[in-house]
Design brief:
By secondary structure, the protein is mainly alpha-helical. It contains 17 helices and no strands. The longest helix has about 30 residues, at about 235-265.
Length: about 400
């Protein structure tokens, strides 16, 4: 055996180093950051967009909504495409379409073209988080899945923060069309980076993987995928973890992305500047909460207690904000930061859902920490078992 083949054989027995795993995963996270950025851009360009397209506030609301129409519609197809294509091709295609949609939006001669551009952006960036989670499952040990998911959420919120003051300053200095053109170029750069740098499985870089297969793309037929979705719906945790995260995230995004500043100004008496600053601080707290909740959950090897605690505190905090008029400002700041931070518990949903169905529906082994926990609690880990942590 040659020295080169011997080195390759020795390398194949090792799992990928963390620096490589983070580098591969980071390209997907960068696309998720851009997706979050593009989601909220119309909020800081309202006057410019209404003037450019001669539209009313209602039409402007529709322009923002076109993003979410396609974003929601793509959620289930995205999971299927991730299984069939693999994350590399899925993220590349998504970034390419997102860049094209942003370019179309930037040069749109009429509101109809702007609608179409936003529609393309929403549908394409919908693949970012799922693709990033897929990479996390392949390139990191299972015990880090929730932690890495939390870091992904952090990247997304960073994108939302960039769509605040920095974006507004750019629009003032260069105009909204030039700013969107630059955003399109940045998205195309990420598209190229994903295609050139990302690989679906560590085996493609000569390393041993953390899952049972060398590649997850194209291993199941269309019939098997559909039957798998139907089977997943038979598990109660699936339905609960479908509804609960929507409530948590819905509160944060609705308040932080649309109604927070007007509400704090009219009901709590804050100036627009202070209301915007507090709104941004809440989003930052959310970004920090995700990795912390995910990391603690991975460390203790349990999901439900921490998830329940985060949801409970989040509900209490939102109830205080909404039903206690004229709240003292220091207390208001604390409560909103608690609401944002505890909402980060939603990141546990992904690991919880992944571990609540039989392993064959995930196409990957659970990891030694899951088996150890199941053994210590007397739960079985056969193909038909369901973890209820």
């Amino acid at each position: 055996m040659s020295v080169r083949n011997l080195y390759k054989s020795m390398k194949q027995k090792k799992t990928p180093p963390f620096r490589l795993a983070w580098f591969i995963w980071g390209w997907g996270a960068a696309f998720y950051l851009v997706g979050f950025f593009l989601r909220v851009t119309p909020a800081v360009m309202t006057a410019e967009l209404m003037q450019a397209f001669h539209i009313s506030a209602t039409a402007l609301g529709n322009l923002s909504a076109f993003y979410f129409y396609s974003y929601v519609a793509m959620q289930i197809p995205t999971g299927i495409l991730a299984d069939i294509w693999g994350p590399r091709r899925l993220l590349t295609a998504g970034a390419l379409i997102a860049g094209s949609g942003t370019l179309m939006f930037a040069v749109a001669p009429s509101i109809l073209w702007a609608y179409l551009g936003r529609f393309l952006i929403g549908g394409s960036v919908a693949v970012a988080f799922v693709g990033t989670l897929k990479l996390a499952g392949e390139w990191f040990p299972a015990r880090f899945f929730s932690t890495v998911s939390g870091v992904a959420l952090f990247f997304g919120i960073v994108g939302a923060v960039f769509a605040g003051v920095p974006l507004r300053l750019s629009v003032i200095s260069f105009g909204w069309r030039h700013t969107m053109l630059f955003s399109a170029v940045a998205t195309f750069v990420i598209c190229a980076g994903v295609w050139l740098m990302v690989r679906d499985h560590p085996s493609e870089k000569g390393y041993a993987g953390f899952t049972g297969a060398d590649s997850t793309a194209g291993t199941r037929s269309r019939t098997q995928i559909i039957s798998g979705i139907v089977e997943v719906l038979h598990y109660p945790n699936t339905w609960l973890l479908f509804v609960i995260p929507g409530g948590i995230v819905g509160c944060v995004l609705t308040f932080g992305g649309l109604w927070g500043v007007p509400y704090l100004s009219t009901h709590q008496g804050l100036s627009t500047t202070r209301a915007a600053a507090l709104n941004s601080a809440m989003l930052v707290a959310w970004a920090i909460g995700g990795p912390i909740f995910g990391g603690i959950s991975d460390r203790i090897g349990r999901r439900k207690p921490l998830y329940f605690l985060g949801c409970t505190l989040s509900v209490i905090a939102w109830a205080i904000v909404l039903f206690w008029p004229n709240l003292p400002i220091p207390l208001l700041v604390i409560v909103l930061l608690v609401a944002g931070f505890t909402s980060g518990c939603m990141i546990i949903s992904f690991a919880f859902a992944k571990e609540s169905v039989p392993r064959q529906l995930n196409q990957k082994c659970r990891g030694s920490h899951v088996r150890a926990h199941a053994a210590s609690t007397g739960r079985r880990m056969d193909a038909g078992s369901q973890l209820e942590w």
